[in-house]
Amino acid sequence: MKSIRILLALVFCQLIAAHNILLSPYGKSCFFETLKKNDELAVSFQVGSRNPHNAEQYVADFYVISPHGKVILKKTDLDHGDEKVKADTNGKYTYCFSNEKTNIVDMDVSFNIHGVVYVDVNDPKADSLDYAIQRLSQLTNDVKAEQGYLVIRERTHRNTAESTNSRVKWWSVFQILVVAANSVFQIYYLKRFFEVKSVV
């Protein structure tokens, strides 16, 4: 039982190490993913130093090469990134981290690979788990978008109602002031009307 735990720990450490590389001075490290048309490759990464006492922020270059050898994405001098590429053809897509401009020896790159497999959700013949998951994901996103729209609509209507209530309140106050002023004027006028004037 103990040996199985040690083996699992070693496998777990191996998986973690696979997403953490040390870039050599004036060097680069490349990896590849095999994609089908319309699949999406997303790479998120962070550049740092393996020296715990080094506070300097390092930068590296990142680029993606298509199966035909053409550079389809190139970003330079990044300390971190979250880049996405959509495959336009089937084949092996290569992504590279480059330290070719500097002689830094302890440049460390931690990265994660995220991918989205393209499934045509509008194809009624697709009767697979991937289709069901993608369709459910699309419907969930539609519901989320509708809820966001309803929240904004409710907020707009509430603001309109509060503005209308405020206007009604101030109009009522104005009417009360007009009625009070009119009453005071009528009392004053009637009092003058019934005053007895003596003529000498």
From TrEMBL:
> Where is this chain's protein located in or outside the cell?
Endomembrane system; Membrane
Keyword annotations of the record: Membrane, Signal, Transmembrane, Transmembrane helix
Matches recorded under Pfam families: EMP24_GP25L
Q: Name one GO biological process term.
A: protein retention in ER lumen
Q: What's any one GO cellular component for it?
A: membrane
> Which InterPro entries does the entry mention?
Emp24-like, GOLD_dom, GOLD_dom_sf
- Domain named GOLD: which ranges? 28-115
Q: Which PROSITE patterns match?
A: GOLD
Query: In its UniProt entry, what is this protein called?
Result: Protein carrier activity
What organism is recorded for this protein?
Answer: Scheffersomyces stipitis (strain ATCC 58785 / CBS 6054 / NBRC 10063 / NRRL Y-11545)
